[in-house]
Amino acid sequence: MTVGASPADFEIARTGQGVPGRWAVVADATSSGGRAIEQTSTETTDYRFPLAIYRPLSTGNVDVAVRFKAVAGKVDQAGGIAVRLSDPDN
After folding, report:
1. Which tens digits make up the pLDDT trace of 17-68?
2. 57-90 burial, b if ≥16 CB within 10 A, otherwise e?
3. What is the total count of domains within the chain?
């Protein structure tokens, strides 16, 4: 993925309120591969959960591991993973 660009193969959405997140590929020496995706929006709406949904993969019986690094935020500093996501609200 190209640093500064939107992450390829991801659907950008949100659940809750407010606008969808703004995601970008960033250089990150602490990540495997040297790149990460970052949610860069400064939206302050409460009960807002920006999503970057990876769509090309559909499989069953998997183990999933993800690392998150909170670097800023005033409303929420959290990260998570959703498995078996059918759409942003389900």
Report:
1. 988 889 999 999 988 889 999 988 888 888 888 998 888 877 888 888 888 8
2. eeeeeeeeeeeeeeeeeeeeeeeeeeeebeebee
3. 1
Domain span holding position 2: 1-90
Q: What is the largest distance, in Å, between two alpha-carbon atoms of the chain?
A: 37
Residue 16 has a CB neighbour count (10 Å cut-off) of 13
As a whole number of angstroms, the distance between CA 85 and CA 53 comes to 8
Higher-confidence position of 2 and 60: 2
d(CA 85, CA 77): 22
